[in-house]
Amino acid sequence: MLKLSSWKHLRIPFSFYLLPVFIFALAFTPNHNPERLLIVFVALHLFLYPSSNGYNSYFDKDEKSIGGLKNPPKVTKGLYYLSLLFFVVALFLGSLINWAFVSMLLVYSLVSMAYSHPSIRLKKYAYLSWITAGIFQGFFTFVMCYAGLSDFGWEVFSKPHVVIPGLLTSIMLLGSYPLTQVYQHEEDSKRGDQTLSLKLGIKGTFLFSSVWFLVAGIAFGTFFFSRNQDWAFYGFLLAMLPVILYFLVWFRFIQKDQKEYANYTWAMWMNRISALALNVFFAWYFLENTQILQVF
User: Fold this and answer.
1) Which residues touch 34 (CB under 8 Å, ≥6 apart)?
2) Do 93 and 47 meet the contact criterion of CB atoms below 8 Å apart?
């Protein structure tokens, strides 16, 4: 467990790409508490997500680039035990909130384990893995964060004011997720993993994602306008501008040479730009929305 290779596979900095969901959930949390905020953040971003990364890396045994690691080292049994240790710590931290939150962390982890474990391996199924990743990294995580930050239980999954913004995060992830697979076609096909990007092809993946990005823009616009938050929609469009521009430039190069540009570097820059843009936007939205809530 102490080997540097095992810690690399945890890919802790990669949690930055999932931070927008946490910040968006924070914007709707009615009961701000610094202690709960810290516990939920640490449990998810420093332990639960890294645990998931390490666990899936152990069973995938990738030899080529994966998200957050351009040259992944060989996995060892120590990585398996380290990922489980991080999983246990995440559950312990969750218990400091409430047991409902612990059970949500457990559900998320079990689904994540099923993604790569050979006995189930959701990754083999193109549309099932796509939907599962979109729902659990988006909607489920949003509601889980809201519950933990507010000290609530499973009842929040029935609240429209929580469910609707949670679904918005899933819509966005359903568009971006296939793009993270465009440089892994060769290795996925060797393992027999029929990912959605592999099924669609590289150009098909870009066209598919562009449709979902359009749907996400319409969905966020409808949501913000329904709340009389026109300012938020225009801020969202401004934040998305560099993401869309990068996407279009990348797609332009892909049309010229798929093998040359459907690679790890281009995909990771897409992740970095979108994560940075969304983190900034949701942080700004959190500050503005909090002031509005305080007025009322």
Assistant:
1) none
2) yes
Per-residue confidence (pLDDT) for residue 32, from 0 to 100? 87
- How many whole angstroms separate alpha carbon 296 and alpha carbon 286? 16
Q: Is the dihedral of CA 262, 263, 267, 269 positive or negative?
A: negative
Counting Cβ atoms within 10 Å, is residue 16 exposed (0-12), middle (13-18) or buried (19+)? middle
CA distances from 294 to 34, 156, 222, 291 (A): 17, 21, 24, 5
| pLDDT above 70 for 291 | no
In this structure, the number of other CB atoms found within 10 A of the CB of residue 176 comes to 22
pTM: 0.94
C-alpha span between 125 and 216 (Å, rounded): 24
State how far the Cα of 140 lies from the Cα of 119, in Å rounded to an integer.
24
Per-residue model confidence as pLDDT tens digits over 143-159: 999 999 999 999 999 99
